[in-house]
């Protein structure tokens, strides 16, 4: 029987690799624009954005603070997440293409 720490290390390694693996059918087409909007004054959001930015080796994701992109969010139908909306600064919004 394998030692408990060896089993734990294996589970951690498998979990970590699963986090970085994205099946091809879930990846957007290269021409699809991806935006990640976040609360620009939230330290937790900033940490998450930095994590995503570091993992975006192709540089395909564009980032923007919810507070600075109100017009774009409204045009895409998610203006309620912009500053002053009913769900203002409560979440991170990802838009791929027009969805």
TrEMBL record:
Residues 1-17 form the signal peptide. The keyword Signal applies. Keywords: Signal. InterPro entries: DCC1-like. It comes from the Eukaryota. GO terms for molecular function: protein-disulfide reductase activity. Coiled coil: none annotated. Pfam families: DCC1-like (PF04134). This is Thiol-disulfide oxidoreductase DCC. It comes from Polarella glacialis (Dinoflagellate). The lineage of its organism: Eukaryota, Sar, Alveolata, Dinophyceae, Suessiales.
């Amino acid at each position: 029987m394998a030692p408990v720490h060896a089993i734990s290390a294996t589970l951690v390694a498998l979990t970590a690799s699963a986090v970085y693996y994205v099946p091809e059918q879930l990846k957007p087409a290269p021409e699809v624009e991806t935006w990640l909007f976040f609360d620009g004054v939230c330290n937790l959001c900033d940490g998450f954005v930095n994590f995503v930015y570091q993992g975006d080796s192709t540089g395909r994701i564009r980032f923007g603070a919810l507070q600075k992109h109100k017009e774009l969010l409204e045009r895409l139908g998610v203006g309620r997440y912009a500053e002053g909306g009913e769900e203002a600064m409560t979440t991170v919004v990802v838009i791929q293409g027009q969805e």
